[in-house]
Structures
1.
Amino acid sequence: MLDGIVQSADGTRIAYSAWGDGDPIVIIDGATAHRATTPENAAAAERLADEFRVINYDRRGRGASADTAPYAPEREFEDLAAVIAQAGGGRPATVFGWSSGGLLALNAAQAGVPIARLAVFEPPVVVGDARPPLRADYVERLDAAVAEGRPGDAVLLFLTDAVGLPPEMAAGVREDASMWAQLEAIAPTIAYDGRQVGETMSGRPLRPDLWDAIDVPVLVLHGDATWPQLAAGARAVADHLPTAMLRAVPGENHGTSGEVLAAALRDFVKEN
């Protein structure tokens, strides 16, 4: 494994880890996650390193990566482009995104970042009445909590409104002091994912022009034991994209092991 730094277009330093050589596979974490909290990424990378150069990076504002204000979703497209160009050797990459990291990947592909194929795991999409939609002022409430020095309130808002945990379960998360401190430390970045989500959790059908420039193969994964609304969201994304295929991962919920992820990505690349 090699740790390194790339410089994004606005000068922000983005930290990454890389394994192996070959065509690049880039892993993007979802909301609140980064390299130190997702050991399954390293486990998958180690299994794929015999054929691929696997890159896992800390999104801006998390882990060892820096941040530069003001935030805009396009800054994270530039971060991904820098990772592909500098850490991946400039070759079009296979990009995999967990949860809202999958929406970032889709949005970046729509914006023209050089991506050869896309894989996403349970992107947060709310269509119909599978669950209550995300309130229209969600991002503004996150921003206000952080600006007013209430990072814990931002985390609670994310856990209840975005994740959908009952308030008592979200309060239980707070009892783990170490985990809660980590969540509060990256609270300013939760709104970043809220902006990447955009209208996809509104409960309305996906707009016809959403991701209409994506013409590369797309793999949409979901656990067959996941929450019904997450499976419904994955199906909605797969149905929306003409080049997409949908696969259920046996026995999994909102995540999977490095071994299962590595096998799914290897098969996806070889089939496409």
Note: The longest strand covers residues 13-19.
2.
Amino acid sequence: MAFKSPHVSLVSFSIEIGAEATINVMQIETDLHLNTRHPSYDAAAIERLVRDARAYLAGNAGQVTRIRLVSTRSGQT
């Protein structure tokens, strides 16, 4: 089942390999501003996205242990 939530443009999966652990990552690209100082920052929308991603992982993503949000918006400062 594909992950769907408002403000999501792309979802990909990756693996981070460290000296002591390998971590599976679900990377979500969003049109939301993630900088809390930006005037368009929407905490409620981000919380919903995080809640949706966690719910998706609980039922579908198996070994994924980390969620990464990436903003596709410019002007993050």
Note: Residues 43-60 form the longest helix (18 residues).
3.
Amino acid sequence: MLENIQRTAAYIKSRIGDFEPEVGIILGTGLGGLVDEIAIEKQLLYPNIPDFPISTLEFHSGRLIFGTLSGKKVIAMQGRFHYYEGYNMQQIIFPVRVMKALGIKTLFVSNASGALNPDFIKGDLMIINDHINLQPTNPLIGANEDELGPRFPDMSEPYQQNLIQKGIEVAKNNNINCHTGVYVAVTGPSLETRAEYRYLRIIGGDAVGMSTAPEVIAANHMGLPVFAISVLTDEGFPDTLKAVSIDEIIAVAQTAEPKMTLILKELIAGLDA
């Protein structure tokens, strides 16, 4: 693993020159538009990066973007990897470890998810303040790489509280309907049944999705502060559940994306403070 990380990071460095990233960004389904706000200096396609997974989803662009956003040097993943695509956990978290090797100090994560909390509606945003990982394995299972982090990393604050509070303030100041809550990570790719939605709400979930937890666990293992935000693209309320298509989910995500982008931009701008 370490050799792969080092080989991939070395290749990327050979392509980006003296570019020194401070911030890593993972863009979720339908949320690639943030890239338009980045003053791009370099782009690398996933298939051209050694050892890098390749996104199998037509709505994930599969590009690693290097540039400036809100005065900070950033790496943005336009397209992430999911367990349901057939990737193992080591492959899913590999880009996070590479970004850390390239020098990032903070990780920002976005996703599209389904609302479980009846006080939320589709189109709202939710800043993640904790998660429940129901994916079938943990990305840290196996021999621990001590150079990356400890065998038993603490997860008492997987999402940085100070960034959460600042995110809430940004949303409030801009009249954005933004909640905080617990994200439940499941495997997918099928959406949930009525009984599953009911169960996920009972165990404490406010939103459900098919990503994020593995990357956040890996980031915490390496000591990277994390801020994560969900665009709520559909409603998993058992008593009023309606069929939903991926096209509808992407459409809602794209409509709500400018609000998410505003929050991320302001948080990134204020990192030094």
Note: Strands lie at 23-27, 39-45, 63-69, 72-78, 106-115, 125-133, 178-185, 207-209, 226-235.
4.
Amino acid sequence: MSFTQVSPGSKVLLINSSHSDPSQLDEAKSLLLRQVTENGLVNIETLSRIVQGDLPNSTYNIIYTNYFGTLASAHNTATLSKFASTLVPGGILYLKEPVLLTLGFAEIPITRTTQDLIGELKLSGFVDFEIRNATKVEFNDLANIIEQVWGITDENKKKDLVHSLYGQLHLVEVVAKKPAYEIGASFALPFAKKTANGSTTKKASIWTLSNDDDEFEDEDQLLDDEDLVKPDKSTLIRPDCETGGKKKACKNCSCGLAEELEKESKPAPKAQTSSCGSCYLGDAFRCSTCPYLGMPSFTPGEKVVLGGNMMQDDL
């Protein structure tokens, strides 16, 4: 493989997994040492040492993993996070990993699609992803991965997996970058005020509530002496209203006097009383609004009782 993206002075880390080819690793290291010159650095670290957390933070510009052998394994989230920690801000991770086109194979340790892998890289702190290659794992390589990487030696089970996974298992190459800042880094905003020693000062929030009375305005101090004087009633009348003598509302009255005079001018409603007094005589003597319409005549004071089947439903 070529390392044209490696510039002089770069610090490069090559990952040696249990399935890497030592000859490919040595060849890659020799080629990289010529490219980074004497000002650069090329190291080979085993994957198990990375998981243990022995690598220094913010050291390498570039990491290559799963590039030096025909077999590949998946990286867990902890390993990807270690890669992010040991890269300098803006560093680049070159990664190869097997992924599935569709999920649903419970017998194998590969449980991610390409998008799932990108999601894991995001959670580990990487940004700016580029998927360069996604090649189908060939039939013979698939059989070797099932037996040597995943440890499945049962012939019948291995045969079934080869046939079901062929065309579904791909080897994808992803390039991911670490952000140009360290996780947890802080920066002063450009408008932050500085003290004499150069440090920034924190201004208390004007919305902070506390038990101190100093935080609140005295509402009595917001009123002037003129605000405390009770207004004269005469000053509340509009100058164009006719006052004195008989009350009369002016044109376009807005003080409520027009509504008040309109209510006073309406006669009081008459009490609703019976004017005929002949309800007991029968319908011939009853008015149109009599409550006894349709009932037989009765003696004054007598309780009216409907007889026969008049209170029964006709149906």
Note: The two ends are 100 Å apart (CA to CA).
